[in-house]
């Protein structure tokens, strides 16, 4: 639904060049919620603004719903009619809501419809319908200043949906909200994604956002995508930074002569009594350093950090046994077990 | 001089001042608003970025702003005659008043429009809105309270200018104050004109502030009403300025 290839953005100011995006290849499938996570300054904002060409990429192409937007853009800095029409089919939600304070909630939602040239009666019908959808049917006549942050973002979402877009871009939509409100706004995004078949590309710096709504995710660092894939792929990737961050387990090694393993369970394996089997079969004492079970991207996943006596060399057989059970084993702090990352370019 | 002698002179003078200030305000708003918006749009990083146009407009505005009104009036004599066919009377005074107040208001508009959150512009762009749509539904409505304050300041400045125009034959309250108060030592007449001006200006300020503030309050007070502050310095001691200071 959204494809970028070789997307590069270089900012020039006073002779200095800053590369915000360095050859981004992103592929968002139709109907999925795709999260791009990274620290501030990683280039996330530039990326999402390049998708609807609010910022012109220095090179590379952006294709949304089969339409090459970079080709529509032309050379000048101003957006031509074609590009504007394409933008009206892409909804966008902002961190600071960006609602017009001089307009009522209903008139804010009608704004994109005015741009599309919809008639007055149709505009208000659509606006009220959308307000109902986001659960703010009683706020049509209020001004944005009278709403709470969460309500403002719901209005922002309703406004983004007014033009019946197939794609929704979310620029840190929940970053200005408290945790409780964040959850309800994310739930709304998830529901809209399911109900309307909306494709959502969101950028965030909060791992929780990825964890609760995303089907796929990408990790951005210094203008590049260092890992990407569906959440289950990422969790199944040994050594994945994103997986570790999505689902951290902690616990320190208790002695030098010990082997620490991170065991990740998902699907069938989660129901097997592997630890006791391991202890019985090999007659070893296992200590559990840390463990957690969580739902990531709608999947039940368990992760456990265990410690076995002896060095890695002594434990090759038990580790093999665990792998046979269909578990994913990461040996913590083990050289020569280089993590295989899904490098950029991987879809 | 008795009141019955003064009354017709004063009412004609008030009417003349109102006429000059009214028309030049209309022209100042019609000319200054687009000019001020253009100054923002053509600036670096603006929607219609054009450094040459921006610098050119900026220079013209600066030159016009820096010229003392009394000199502007004299400098424009030929132009005034070309437009109105005369250099005397209230119609002729409107020309320099308008020319002087367009750049004045344009700067105030520029300041107000600059205060509008860039995110709102981005939002409208992301919906596929044109630059014209951005101007119409974001820049002007979002800065409206501040624009109204700017218009109030402009009208008050115009009343001051119109008094100066009075000295070179434009009529109006300034003319009356000079001719009767200064040249004929009719102190009573002078004090009355001063009182009329003080009341008119205070009233104007109160109405302007009220309009700006009620719009501002509705929209929850986002966006700065920066025109309240410079006012203190411009008219120290007037009732309106004190009211502003208290608020």
UniProtKB/TrEMBL annotation, chain A:
Keywords: Amino-acid transport, ATP-binding, Cell membrane, Membrane, Nucleotide-binding, Translocase, Transport
Transmembrane segments: none
GO biological process entries: amino acid transport
Domain ABC transporter: 2-247
Molecular function GO terms recorded: ATP binding; ATP hydrolysis activity
Highest taxon, organism lineage: Bacteria
Cited Gene3D superfamilies: 3.30.70.260, P-loop containing nucleotide triphosphate hydrolases (3.40.50.300)
Cross-referenced Pfam families: ABC_tran, NIL
PANTHER family reported in the protein's UniProt record: AMINO ACID IMPORT ATP-BINDING PROTEIN, METHIONINE IMPORT ATP-BINDING PROTEIN METN
The name this protein goes by in its record: Methionine ABC transporter ATP-binding protein
Organism (species): Streptomyces yokosukanensis
Automatic annotation (TrEMBL), chain B:
Gene Ontology, cellular component aspect: plasma membrane
Keywords tagged on the record: Cell membrane, Membrane, Transmembrane, Transmembrane helix, Transport
Localization of this protein: Cell membrane
Family: Belongs to the binding-protein-dependent transport system permease family. CysTW subfamily.
Protein topology in the membrane: Multi-pass membrane protein
Name of the molecule in the record: ABC transporter permease
TM annotation in the entry: 20-42, 63-82, 146-168, 188-208
GO BP, one annotated term: D-methionine transmembrane transport
Ranges of residues in domain ABC transmembrane type-1: 14-212
InterPro entries: AA_ABC_Transporter_Permease (IPR051322), MetI-like (IPR000515), MetI-like_sf (IPR035906)
């Amino acid at each position: 639904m959204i494809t970028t290839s070789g997307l590069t953005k270089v900012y020039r100011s006073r002779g200095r060049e800053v590369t915000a995006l360095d050859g981004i290849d992103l592929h968002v499938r139709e109907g999925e919620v795709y999260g791009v996570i990274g620290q501030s300054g990683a280039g996330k904002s530039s990326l999402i603004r390049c998708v609807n060409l609010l910022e012109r990429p220095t090179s590379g192409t952006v294709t949304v719903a089969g339409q090459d937007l970079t080709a529509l853009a032309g050379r000048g800095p101003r957006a031509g009619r074609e590009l504007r029409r394409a933008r009206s089919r892409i909804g966008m939600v902002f961190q600071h809501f960006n609602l017009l304070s001089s307009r009522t909630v209903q008139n804010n939602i009608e704004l994109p419809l005015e741009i599309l040239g919809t008639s007055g009666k149709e505009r208000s019908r659509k606006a009220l319908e959308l307000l109902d959808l986001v659960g703010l049917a009683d706020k049509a006549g209020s001004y944005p200043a009278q709403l709470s942050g969460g309500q403002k973002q719901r209005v922002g979402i309703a406004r983004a949906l007014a033009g019946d877009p197939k794609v929704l871009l979310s620029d840190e939509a929940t970053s200005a909200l408290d945790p409780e409100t964040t959850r309800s706004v994310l739930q709304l995004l998830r529901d809209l994604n399911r109900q309307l078949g909306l494709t959502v590309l969101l950028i965030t710096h909060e791992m929780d956002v990825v964890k609760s709504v995303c089907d796929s995710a990408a990790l951005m660092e210094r203008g590049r995508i260092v890992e990407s894939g569906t959440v289950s792929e990422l969790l199944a990737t040994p050594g994945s930074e994103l997986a570790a961050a999505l689902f951290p387990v902690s616990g320190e090694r208790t002695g030098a002569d010990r082997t620490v393993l991170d065991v990740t369970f998902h699907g069938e394996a989660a129901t097997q009594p592997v630890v006791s089997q391991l202890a019985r079969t090999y007659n070893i004492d296992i200590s559990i350093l840390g463990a957690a079970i969580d739902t990531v991207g709608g999947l039940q996943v368990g992760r456990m950090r265990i410690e076995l006596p002896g060095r890695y060399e002594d434990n090759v057989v038990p580790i093999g046994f665990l792998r046979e059970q269909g578990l994913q084993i990461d040996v913590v702090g083990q050289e020569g077990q280089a993590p295989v990352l899904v490098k950029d370019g991987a879809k | 001089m008795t009141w019955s002698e003064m009354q017709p002179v004063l009412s004609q003078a008030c009417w003349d001042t109102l006429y000059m200030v009214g028309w030049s305000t209309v022209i100042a708003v019609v000319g200054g608003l687009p000019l001020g918006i253009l100054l923002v749009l053509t600036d670096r990083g603006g929607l219609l970025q054009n450094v040459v146009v921006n610098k050119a407009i900026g220079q013209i505005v600066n030159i016009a702003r820096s010229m003392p009104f009394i000199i502007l009036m004299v400098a424009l004599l030929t132009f005034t005659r070309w437009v109105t066919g005369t250099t005397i009377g209230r119609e002729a005074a409107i020309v320099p008043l308008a020319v002087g107040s367009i750049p004045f208001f344009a700067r105030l508009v520029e300041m107000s429009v600059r205060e509008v959150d860039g995110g709102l512009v981005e939002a409208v762009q992301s919906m596929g809105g044109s630059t014209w749509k951005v101007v119409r539904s974001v820049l002007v409505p979002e800065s409206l309270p501040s624009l109204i304050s700017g218009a109030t300041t402009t009208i008050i400045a115009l009343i001051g200018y119109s008094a100066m125009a009075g000295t070179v034959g434009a009529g109006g309250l300034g003319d009356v104050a000079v001719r009767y108060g200064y040249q004929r030592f009719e102190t009573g007449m002078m004090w009355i004109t001063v009182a009329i001006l003080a009341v008119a200006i205070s009233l104007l300020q109160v109405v302007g502030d009220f309009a700006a503030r009620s719009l501002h309050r509705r929209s929850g007070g986002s966006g700065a009403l920066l025109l309240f502050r410079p006012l203190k310095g411009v008219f120290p001691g007037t009732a309106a300025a004190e009211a502003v200071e208290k608020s």
